[in-house]
Design brief:
- The structure is a homodimer of 252-residue chains.
- Chain A is built from 9 helices and 2 strands, in the order αααββαααααα.
- In chain A, helix 4 runs parallel beside helix 8 and helix 6 packs antiparallel against helix 7.
- The first copy, chain A, folds into 2 domains: 84 residues, Winged helix-like DNA-binding domain superfamily/Winged helix DNA-binding domain (Arc Repressor Mutant, subunit A); 147 residues, Four Helix Bundle (Hemerythrin (Met), subunit A), CATH 1.20.120.
- Chain A is 63% helix and 3% strand.
- Chains A and B meet through helix 3, helix 4, helix 5, helix 6 and helix 7 of A and helix 3, helix 4, helix 5, helix 6 and helix 7 of B.
- The structure holds a DNA duplex (30 and 30 nucleotides).
Chain lengths: 252, 252
Amino acid sequence: MPSPTIPVDLILAELPRSTGLSAMLAGRLAASIRAGEFGPGDRLPTEKQLVERFSVSRAVVREAIARLKTDGFVETRQGAGAFVAPRPGLANFRIAALNNEMGLLDAADLAHVFELRGVIEAGMAELAAQRRSAADLAALNAAFAQMEQALQSDDNGAAADDSFHAAVAMAAHNPYLAQFAAFLAQHFSATRALTWQPAARSSGSTAAAQAEHRALLDAITRGDPGAAGAAARNHITEAAGRYRAADKQPKG
Amino acid sequence: MPSPTIPVDLILAELPRSTGLSAMLAGRLAASIRAGEFGPGDRLPTEKQLVERFSVSRAVVREAIARLKTDGFVETRQGAGAFVAPRPGLANFRIAALNNEMGLLDAADLAHVFELRGVIEAGMAELAAQRRSAADLAALNAAFAQMEQALQSDDNGAAADDSFHAAVAMAAHNPYLAQFAAFLAQHFSATRALTWQPAARSSGSTAAAQAEHRALLDAITRGDPGAAGAAARNHITEAAGRYRAADKQPKG
DNA sequence: ATTTGTCAGCTTGTCTGACAAATCCTGCAA
DNA sequence: TTGCAGGATTTGTCAGACAAGCTGACAAAT
């Protein structure tokens, strides 16, 4: 019977493969900050003090602090010092933290990430159906037409597909939602480029995807949030199915 | 009439306040990688070459590469060199990238982030209603009872509230979704700690929240995804309203 | 008494040179 | 062809130095 503990520590968990001294020092400092030893706005010990405290060179200290800077934990000001960032909760979300070790996502992981993308796209489609402006509809129709055109040429339509999804994101009028959706889309296009052969898109699968796009476009045009959400979710689910099917084909 | 361009560059946009040479160099290298100049697995120029190419010291080069490492763009192996990460799409998602400059989120930003959280929680609740096991239901009921108990004592029930949401995340059986929900929850608890006074929770607002929790628990127990999603979304919306109300009260 | 100018000390940013550790590559011997 | 030794290459770490910017104290002027 597992007790319902909060898995919040996973988010900022240190990468186990910490390379070298600087990563270890960065981990110790981050742990101190999370433990509340240094509150938001507090000044960290100077580089000199850290050098003496941990018996490492200044290069190591600087690299560790640089890591904390890019992680959003601390900010530095030349001549003043290093300070804990005022907004500790706004650290980065590392979706890859759990599986940074293995080469690629396994099938179960991939299904989970697809599911996450489906949730996001569905929510975004619902909002788009409620908020789309005339300009949004024009952009959506333009992207859709571009895909129609790509369907009849040799182009696999990947760029047009991205434009369509971006137009949906614009219509939802929520930059954070759009940002996260773009992040996931980039993730998938990168994975796709590694595992799919370009020719796999030229068959009937793109026609099926276009039908799903049409359903989504119609629902957003009608202003039907439920139908838009369902269409977007269905589109992602189908894409996941096509992904798996293509993945099982021989590589040649 | 804005053309429907892809806002994917926003994700990894360089922070405008780039401090110093190393940040500039890191930006240039990241741009090269994004532009496809170096593909996944390719080896970057050696530190020595970069020193000559950009007329900076090796410390600057190393700090720039360290930044790219923590950003997930490159990996280094001692004696071998620096290589573009094989999974470029798995870089970090920086929810704070757009407003890293200002002190806190303004009201519009906050509403957008609440909306994002509502989408995530709703999708998670739908999945929880479909997949909850007997153990999940037991954990949910335990967390709910804990909140009931906290309601009658002086405890503001924040810990129990977190446990309940964590139990919902567990019941959804999707680690990525749970991870992102936990990230957002942490973000909000951090913001709440800065702006709310603890006493603000002891009034009737917690009772209202508990009623929303009951609706969510019932829907998940019944296995009704639609109702669970609606309940979760409503809960977040109401929480946003309570947040705004508390925010407008005088600080004393 | 308050404001302003100056300066000394401190802290981070950058540069230089060196050595250690790990990897890669070449050539030689079996 | 295979195996291994050894040099060359590359990143990791160290040490010292100067430049750039900030802070606080003190003196001078209003």
